[in-house]
Amino acid sequence: MGLIVDSVEEVVNLGPDLIEPAPDFGTRIDTAYILGMAKIDGKVKTLLDIDRVVAPGAVKALAESAA
After folding, report:
1. Which of 18, 50, 42, 44 is nearest to 59 (CA)?
2. What is the mean pLDDT of residues 22-48?
3. What range does the domain containing 45 cover?
């Protein structure tokens, strides 16, 4: 499987000690696809759980919604 993206903002290597759990944004935001958060150079970055983003069920749901 491959992915086509519009752009890549940044690529960094992070150790597990630098990744914090995603905060609770409330019921209006689904955090199922967020792996965690990390501070890099004083800025907070949201880390996507790419395994969930491209999981077969997620890909099928996207394909069905586009049809």
Report:
1. 50
2. 84
3. 27-66
Query: Which string of DSSP letters, residue by residue, matches 50-65?
Result: HHHHT-HHHHHHHHHH
Residue 14 lies in a domain: no
Which tops the pLDDT comparison, 32 or 7?
7
How is residue 33 written in tokens? Answer: 């696809």
Both tokens assigned to 25: 């944004």
How many domains are there within the chain?
Answer: 1
**Tally of CB atoms within 10 A around 2:** 4
Dist CA 12 CA 52 (whole Å): 20
Distance CA 61, CA 17 (A): 33
Question: Whole-model pTM?
Answer: 0.61
Spatial CB neighbours of 39, under 8 Å, sequence gap ≥ 6: 18, 45
Helix (H, G, I), strand (E, B) or coil at 39: strand
